[in-house]
Each structure stands twice: as structure tokens, then as C-alpha cells.
Design brief:
Strand content: 25-35%
Largest sheet: 9 strands, mixed
CATH superfamily: FAD/NAD(P)-binding domain
Bound molecules: flavin-adenine dinucleotide
Radius of gyration: 21 Å
Structural class: alpha/beta
Shape: globular
Helix content: 25-40%
């Protein structure tokens, strides 16, 4: 029996950032990660097609936990302007200058952050990594949670955090209810080189065949996320890399000239996952285990980092006599995260549905949505408010 204070199940960005944020705490932490494979090695030619738009609030969080300073600036691009284009002519432009910030977001590869986080926690004195390892049973007792691993080891702790992604094993062991709605849509991701410079601009088009985002990468490169119905995603994935590049260039009105493939395309099914209660005695859920969101607002991993920051803040501030697995104590974490999560999930879901060409009243909704985009673009205070909220600056 190995005693810990905290067991984190899942060593993705949420789990590793939580461990890193608790580096200075007196908690003895166990981190359990199923996959042995390290993050992809980075090279000048190889670019990870999963990229994130990291908000300024989360850049500051990553700086506070000692990760930001180690990220290679050559692999990051600042977004200084964002253009949102409706399918019937509506448009909205956000600029860092108008919003009063240096940049709207930073675009970087998932593997860049993952690698830094994993390397950082390897040197952490209060952390024991179990990797590759997977849990077999979880027993919630009155004073402790007991977790057995598939290799027969037994760990105990006052608190178990499920940071094990959208199909969370930890969540499945609890009575916490979940609503999991597939969007019947895939996020098709790929990277391209461009003929013309993007000048730090991100674009988002709401089209009949889904929402297409172009995100700037360093140099003349972009990454795309095309959130599109399952059948259209299959059509896109069946194209040759060159034909897909041409299709993407055409969908964006050849704004950056000719595109050439940089990485093969991949696709991920999109789901709206709502978990009304994310804590229970001796249990808390964080990151995708606690919420799934449509990628059109680029908030998925940002919400996970904000969960981490809130939970780490609570745990770091807890007095030594506090039982960190006590339900009333954990309620404070749930309260701190509930409103933002619900708001972003609902707003993103509403936008996705407004522009969904498969919806019964699609043409009417779409006209209204386009009108709304243009109106918002003209109302500078409202636009700045939206931008600042999205940046985590409110
Ligand atoms: C197409 C697409 C585009 C996206 N674009 C963006 C974007 O632009 N910006 C953004 O912010 N977000 C984006 N997201 C969302 C983002 O990828 C996720 O929010 C993020 O990866 C969640 O991190 P996590 O650590 O919570 O979960 P995960 O990344 O799923 O990590 C969970 C970890 O737990 C491990 N694990 C799972 N089960 C077990 C188990 N039983 N035992 C031990 N370990 C286990 C897994 O191996 C994994 O390492 C996008 C998502 C998609 C699908």
C-alpha cells in the first residue's frame, strides 16, 4: 500500500499542469498515465497538426508554473488579428490593438507544451510517476480513496483527480452523471505552407459545410481546423494532400495564395460533454474529463488549464489540517469553475447550431447570425468586451 495525498489519473496537459502547479506544495502526489510514448520530437520539418490557441490568461498561468520560459519561440505564432466571416456576408474583426492587448492568443503545437510539462515534472521531488500504468479499481472510503493498478500495486490518497480525458475512466467509476452529445461532426486538422505571409491573422469562416479556421504558425505556415459534418470530413480525408490543400485554399478565397501540404490531415469526432457535478467526496474532475466543447472557439485546453489553476490555488492555500478530499472543500473548486464552463459551452454550442446548415430553419438562423456578426462588428464596446472575455481578461 503506497500512501499519497493526491492521485492524478491522466498525464495529458491538464494532469501534468496540475502536478506542475503543485510543485511547491507539501502534498505527496502520484500521477498515473496510460501512454508510455513521449511527446513527438520536434524538428524543423515535422509540425504537429494538433495546435492550440493559448489565451493570454493561460500564457500567464504557464509562465507562473515555469513552463512558458522554456517554450521555443520559433515554434509559436502570435495572433494579432482575427477575422470571422459568416456564410451570407456578415463579418467581425478583432484586433489586439483595438482590444488593448499585445496579442489575442498564441498558436502553438500540442506536443510543444506537452513535452515541456512532462520534462518539468520529471524533476519534481513531491511527485511519483506511474507510467505506463492504468488503474483497475477505485474504492472511495470515508477517510481515503484506494486505487489499484493493473500491475497489482495499490495506492491510497485523500483525493483522486480525474484528468483522464473525455472518456474518463475515473468519471465512469463514480455516480457523477454526464450528458454526451455527438455533433455528428469531425474536426479535420492539417498544416500547410502558404504563398503569402499571414501577418499574424487568424480567420474563421462559417460555411454551409461547417466552420473553417486558419490559424497562423511561425513563418509562412498555417494550421487548420475544419469542423464539418461526418460525410464531408470523410470526403476531405479521402483527397490527396495536394487536392486537400487546393480545397482549403479555395474555401478561404485564396487569401494566402497557393497552399502546399505540410502534415497529413487527421480528424477527431466532436462531442458536447456536460458534467453537471464535477466533484464528489474524495473526487474531482478536470479538463476534458469535466467538459467537452466544440473547437470553434478554441477553448478546450484553455478551460482545462483554468480548472488546473483553480484547483491548484485551492490546494496550495489549504491549511495542513484540511482534509483535501472533503466534499465541502471540493465544492469551492466546482463553484469556481461552473459559471465559465457553462457559459463557454453554451455560447459555443449556440454558435455551432446557428450556422449549422443541417438545422431545419438553417437559412433564417444563418441570415440572423450574419446580421448579428455585422452589428457586433460596428459596436466597438461590445466587440471589445467579447474579445476580452475570450482572452480571459475579464
Ligand atoms: C479537432 C480538435 C481541435 C482542438 N483544438 C483546440 C484548440 O484550438 N484550442 C484548445 O484549447 N483546445 C482544442 N481542442 C481540445 C483539446 O485537445 C483538449 O481540450 C485537451 O487535449 C484536453 O486535455 P486533457 O489533458 O484534459 O485530456 P487529454 O488530452 O485527453 O489527456 C488525457 C490523458 O489521460 C490519459 N488517460 C486516459 N485514460 C486513462 C486511464 N484510464 N489511466 C491512465 N491514463 C489515462 C491519456 O493517455 C491522456 O494522456 C481541440 C480538440 C479537437 C478534437
Amino acid at each position: 500500500m503506497q500512501p499519497f495525498d493526491l492521485i492524478i489519473v491522466g498525464g495529458g496537459l491538464t494532469g501534468t499542469s496540475l502536478a506542475a502547479a503543485l510543485r511547491e506544495s507539501r502534498l505527496r502526489i502520484a500521477l498515473i498515465e496510460a501512454q508510455a510514448s513521449p511527446a513527438l520530437p520536434l524538428s524543423a520539418e515535422a509540425w504537429d497538426s494538433r495546435v492550440y490557441a493559448i489565451s493570454p490568461a493561460n500564457a500567464a498561468f504557464l509562465a507562473r508554473i515555469g513552463v512558458w520560459a522554456h517554450l521555443d519561440p520559433e515554434r509559436m505564432a502570435a495572433v494579432r488579428q482575427m477575422r470571422v466571416q459568416g456564410d451570407r456576408g456578415g463579418s467581425l474583426t478583432f484586433s489586439a490593438f483595438e482590444t488593448g492587448v499585445q496579442e489575442l492568443a498564441w498558436i502553438m503545437e500540442s506536443s510543444l507544451i506537452a513535452r515541456e510539462l512532462r520534462e518539468g515534472i520529471k524533476r519534481q521531488a513531491n511527485l511519483t510517476r506511474f507510467c505506463p500504468a492504468a488503474p483497475l479499481t477505485l474504492d472511495i472510503g470515508e477517510n481515503a480513496a484506494t486505487l489499484t493498478l493493473k500491475d497489482g500495486q495499490t495506492l491510497t490518497a485523500r483525493l483522486v483527480v480525474g484528468a483522464d480525458g473525455r472518456d474518463s475512466w475515473v468519471r465512469q467509476q463514480t455516480r457523477l452523471t454526464v450528458s454526451d452529445q455527438p455533433y455528428r461532426t469531425q474536426g479535420v486538422v492539417a498544416n500547410f505552407t502558404t504563398e503569402k505571409p499571414h501577418r499574424g491573422t487568424a480567420w474563421q469562416w462559417f460555411r454551409d459545410d461547417g466552420a473553417l479556421a486558419w490559424l497562423p504558425l511561425p513563418g509562412k505556415r498555417i494550421s487548420i481546423v475544419w469542423s464539418t459534418p461526418d460525410d464531408h470530413a470523410a470526403t476531405l480525408l479521402a483527397l490527396s494532400p495536394e487536392a486537400l490543400a487546393e480545397r482549403v485554399a479555395e474555401a478561404g478565397g485564396h487569401l494566402l495564395g497557393k497552399l502546399a501540404p505540410l502534415t497529413p490531415a487527421a480528424a477527431f469526432p466532436l462531442r458536447l460533454i456536460r458534467v453537471p457535478r464535477t466533484v464528489a467526496p474524495r473526487l474531482a474532475l478536470a479538463g476534458d474529463a469535466a467538459h467537452g466543447i466544440h473547437p470553434l472557439s478554441g477553448h478546450g485546453v484553455n478551460l482545462g488549464f483554468q480548472d488546473t489553476e483553480a484547483l491548484a490555488h485551492l490546494l496550495n492555500a489549504a491549511p495542513p489540517w484540511q482534509d483535501i478530499g472533503e466534499a465541502r472543500f471540493l465544492e469551492r473548486f466546482q463553484r469556481a469553475r461552473k459559471e465559465e464552463t457553462l457559459l463557454l459551452q453554451s455560447a459555443t454550442d449556440a454558435i455551432a447550431r446557428l450556422f449549422d446548415a443541417r438545422a431545419p430553419a438553417a437559412p433564417l438562423f444563418s441570415r440572423l447570425a450574419n446580421f448579428g456578426l455585422t452589428l457586433t462588428d460596428r459596436a466597438l464596446p461590445l466587440k471589445n468586451l467579447l474579445a476580452r472575455y475570450a482572452l480571459g481578461a475579464l
